[in-house]
Each structure stands twice: as structure tokens, then as C-alpha cells.
Amino acid sequence: MSKILVGLKRVVDYNVRVRVKPDGTGVVTDGVKMSINPFDEIALEEALRIKEKGGATEVIVVSIGPADTQQQLRTGLAMGADRAILVQADSVVEPLAAAKVFLKLIEKESPQIVLLGKQGIDDDNNQTGQMLAALWDRPQATFASKVELDGGKAKVTREVDAGLETIEVDLPAVLTTDLRLNEPRYVKLPDIMKAKKKPLETVAIASLGVETAPQFKTTKYEPPAARSKGVMVKDVGELVAALKQKGLV
């Protein structure tokens, strides 16, 4: 195996409380800490572990977004990726367009595995990996909690509603990661310094010939309704009566 391509999405850090803009046109990002999407960080960790076991010779991290996304790619390089590609886009790129961008990079890089997080914590779409596999006409294994490589095959344990499911797919393939796959490594200062010297290529999304016009229009953003105060009940009978009053039983 030669290359593993890993997608890294820039998102509002999961520790930050997301706030909606007063005019309802989006969420506040000015001055807000941005990080690698947690599921994508797990994907990168798995790619690095595969390389460390001799299953790959190069790990390439890819991100689609504005110029500031270089910060997250540098973090990926500090974790251990060999090089990075930023597909610069100044507007929101929907999952189908993102999948088409990855397909263009696959045609150029010819990776054996494309590792993506199962979803972004900002939009929760859970679509890009599946769409990419369909466009690439290659197998997919989503929600991976364990990955084992054996020659030209990958044995993947998936987290599904009924429990765990183990499947085997031929490589090249698209794998998407779940939370329990691994725990990403801590980035040390010397690695951050080394990452500054690693190659980071910037490609304009228009040069790839991918149609990025949005297919959906978001008309308004609203914060979730404030949680109502709880009610104390004395016994089960009073609980049942309260539930009946609310039409829940």
C-alpha cells in the first residue's frame, strides 16, 4: 500500500458553546476557537497507526475551506501526516461537492484508502464518505470502530443500531470512523515546529472543475428552545398523572 488520504474539516471547537448571530443568518465564528472535526482527527490517528505498522508509506491530509484552514492542516502535519493539500474555497461546500473534490484528488494521488470522519459536528450530514464511494465506484465501510488490514483487503468492525457488524472490503476503499476507533495522540511542541517545514499545497477549488453552487438554501438559524424547569413528583401515581396531562401516556 502506498498512500492514505485523510479528510480534515475545520469546525468550531467542540468545547465552545455555539451562538447564533442576532440577525439569524448563521453562527458566530469571529474570535471563536476553530479545530479539526473530532471524527476526522480519529481518522488521521488511524491512518498514522496503519503507516507505523508498515501498511502505508505516506499519509496525506486534505481540507476544503478558506485560507485559515491551513492552521488545522498544520495540526494534522504535527500529528504525523507527511504532507497536506488545501482546496481553497471561500464559501460553504456541500457534501456532494466535497465528494467530487476528493474524487479529483484521488485521480491525482491514487490512494489505497480514503479515511474520513463519519460526519462533521457542525452540520451532522454524514454523507460525504458514502457519496465519494459511489462516485469512485469503490467499496465503503462506514462507522468503523476497528480496522484490520490483510493484503488487499480491510476487515472493518462497524457500529450499527443492533450492535457490531464486521465486514470485509477490497481495497481501494472509503472508510469512515466512529468515536471508539481510537484516541488521537497529543501533539508535542517539537512536532509543531517540524510541521512548519512539511509541504502544504494550496489548490483553488475552481481549478478542479467541480460545481460548488449550493443545492440548498438555509433561510434562518435559531438556537434551541430553552429547557423548561423540571417538576418534582412524590410517587409513581403522581408521575403517571403528570405524563397523562401532557399527553405523553
From TrEMBL:
Has UniProt tagged this entry with the keyword Electron transport? yes
Q: Say if the entry is tagged with keyword Transport.
A: yes
GO terms, molecular function: electron transfer activity
* Co-factor(s): AMP
Q: What InterPro entries does the record tag this protein with?
A: ETF_a/b_N, ETF_b, ETF_beta_N, Rossmann-like_a/b/a_fold
Q: Name one Pfam family in it.
A: ETF
Gene3D superfamilies linked to this entry: HUPs
The residues covered by the Electron transfer flavoprotein alpha/beta-subunit N-terminal domain are 24-212
Stated family: Belongs to the ETF beta-subunit/FixA family.
Q: Describe, as the record does, how this protein assembles with itself and its partners.
A: Heterodimer of an alpha and a beta subunit.
Q: What is the protein's given name?
A: Electron transfer flavoprotein subunit beta
Annotated source species: Steroidobacter agaridevorans
